[in-house]
Write a structure and sequence with these properties.
InterPro entries: Endo/exonu/phosph_ase_sf. It is built from three helices and six strands. The chain is of the alpha+beta class. The protein has one domain: Endonuclease/exonuclease/phosphatase (Deoxyribonuclease I, Chain A). A four-stranded mixed sheet has the order 2-3-5-4. A two-stranded antiparallel sheet has the order 1-6. The N terminus is likely disordered.
Length: 120
């Protein structure tokens, strides 16, 4: 729940099953880094991420370093949707996001704030 509080995301559940909420955090290692294949590139790693998510079946996933293609992967292959903040132009920068299962949660509100009083 700390992930939700820090991000400013408020979700409402329409799920009538278990009241247990599973949360996962992933540092995706941005695909913008162009890590070499076969072991480092996102084209190979994304299927391992999918296996991990399918194995643990989280309700919410907090991610760091997500590039546009990685965000799209979560939305198309994992049936999650989410919200997040880009560091600059979203097309060329990474994003920190919170994804939630589309069949269990509805986004009620989203905001971004810093945990510092002012930037220097």
């Amino acid at each position: 729940m700390l992930v939700l509080a820090v991000s400013g995301v408020v979700c409402g559940s329409s799920y009538t099953g278990s009241s247990r909420v599973k949360v996962m955090s992933l540092n995706l290692r941005t695909s913008l880094a162009n890590d070499p294949c076969p072991n480092g590139c996102w084209q190979e790693r994304k299927w391992r991420v999918k296996q991990l998510v399918n194995k643990h079946e989280p309700d919410l996933i907090g991610t760091q370093e997500g590039a546009p293609d990685q965000i799209e992967f979560f939305q198309t292959h994992l049936l999650f949707t989410g919200t997040g903040e880009c560091s600059g132009d979203c097309q060329w920068n990474e994003r920190d996001s919170i994804f939630y299962k589309i069949d269990r949660w509805n986004l009620l509100e989203s905001s971004t704030f810093a945990l510092v009083r002012s930037y220097k």
